[in-house]
Amino acid sequence: MLIDTHCHLDFPDFDADRAAVIARARSAGVEQIVVPAINVDNLQRVIDLCASSPCFHPALGLHPCFPHDTDAALNSLAQALEVNKVVAIGEIGLDFRPGQAEAEVQQPLFEQQLQLARKYDLPVLLHVVRAHDQVLKLLRRYQLPRAGIVHAFSGSEQQAREYAKLGFKLGFGGAISYDRAQKLRRLVLELPLEWLVLETDAPDMPLEQHRGQPNEPSRVAEVAQLIAALRGRPITEIAAITTATAQQLLRLPAY
């Protein structure tokens, strides 16, 4: 069994063929999918989608790359967390690429969501771009009881080890399929397998062989195959260990 720990299955990209996408995922052995929210507008959409199947698990959060009316959005998020069973707070974090909101806007939003994670005893799904050191500093300050996953990890080996010290796992997906991603491939090869979880970020981040096409959760099986090839290990081992890690961290059911 495989778990896609980060898939935006509620996005309109899937509206035309969502049932077929889900069927392909199950055929590929992907039995559980974590669906993170990104803003107030899709909180309820994520909740409703995940209510349709015990195989889908909601995470609720406010993404740093989308505009938010911060106070109102945080209030809506807190209300949703109060009345819904979710597996994580996410997708949250910091993104310091040019063109994104200023750090003075992003960081308070992130910190208040870390506080919600503490309040509700939930792990977090982190979006971190060009901000790993800043995020690590904040995670040390807040000392979350249940850690979480660094989605689409893109940091250094040293940063990976610092996240691991805090109990975090690292999400790897389609980016490792590109020949230019030598740093990521080296991390996948050298880091302990118990630190890794699988993801697609569908419909985004397609694998190289599917470039130009919407990504989908079935392709987490191809991510597992790539990791198995890089490490020279059976895919059954990759699947078993990454699945157990995700289940334990997010308290997912063991089928």
UniProtKB/TrEMBL annotation:
CDD domains: TatD_DNAse (cd01310)
InterPro entries attached to this UniProt entry: DNase_TatD-rel_CS (IPR018228), Metal_Hydrolase (IPR032466), TatD-like (IPR001130), TatD/YcfH-like (IPR015991)
GO molecular function: hydrolase activity
Keywords noted in UniProt: Hydrolase, Metal-binding
Domain of life from the UniProt record: Bacteria
NCBIfam families: YchF/TatD family DNA exonuclease (TIGR00010)
Family listed: Belongs to the metallo-dependent hydrolases superfamily. TatD-type hydrolase family.
Protein's recorded name: Metal-dependent hydrolase
